[in-house]
Amino acid sequence: MITVWGGQTSRSIRVVWLLEEMGLPYRLRQVDMLAPVQDPEFLAVNPADYIPALQDGDVSMIESIAIMEYLMARYGPTPLAPAPQDPAFPAYQQFLHLGEAGLATLMMPVVVSRFMAPEAERENWGAKWCLQVLGKRLKLVSQRLAHSPYLAGEAFTAADISVTYALNLGQRNCGLVLGDAEQAYLARTTGRDAYKRAMERSHEGVST
């Protein structure tokens, strides 16, 4: 049984969403990153203490994009990952990784500054710089969506899972304002049944 450590609106939603799209069985173990003491079982999987983490038999992995690539390679083929000879492959690869390396990672200094830093340090130079760079990189998404409904082209792929998470994170925690094309794109991606199932599973057992 595949086990995903994470839950709620963390980066683990990428992995759970992918598993729902692929129809693979899994279980979810909630992780409270603000808990004073973490579950020893979780720390045995990822002693660096961040989510998501994956267990699949003897395999343990961290990093949401790497986990997604592993699952698609291990349990594919799947249309969520275009083949290298597919004309959509270059765009797929670019946006799959842009969602984390180029977008979500830049948001983290903003998030921790706004929600965890002392009041006087919340609008710091580093966080402001990250927001400026983020605005430039979002142009890549906007330009792509001006020509196709999804980031790899006409079909939904794992690249859309990657970037949708980042856009939602930006709107929710960074004050990111998206244009009409990006909002319509999010409506398409988050309107999928697999996304709705993933969100429901990711909040199981969590009091609201």
Structure notes:
It is built from eight helices and four strands. It has 208 residues and is an alpha+beta fold.
Average residue pLDDT: 96
Could you name the ranges where pLDDT drops below 50 across 5 or more consecutive residues?
none
Largest sheet: 4 strands, mixed
Output the structural class. Answer: alpha+beta
Written as H for each helix and E for each strand, in order along the chain, the element string is EHEHEEHHHHHH
Residues in helix, %: 55-70%
Radius of gyration: 17 Å
Query: How large a portion of the residues is in β-strands, by DSSP E?
Result: 5-15%
How many strands in all?
A: 4
Q: Distance between the terminal alpha carbons, to the nearest Å?
A: 28 Å
Shape: globular
Helix run count: 8
Order of strands in the sheet with most strands? 2-1-3-4
Structure at a glance:
This protein is an alpha+beta fold. Helix content is 55%, strand content 9%.
What is the topology?
Layout: E1 2-6, H1 12-22, E2 26-30, H2 40-45, E3 53-56, E4 59-62, H3 64-75, H4 89-116, H5 125-145, H6 158-173, H7 180-190, H8 193-202
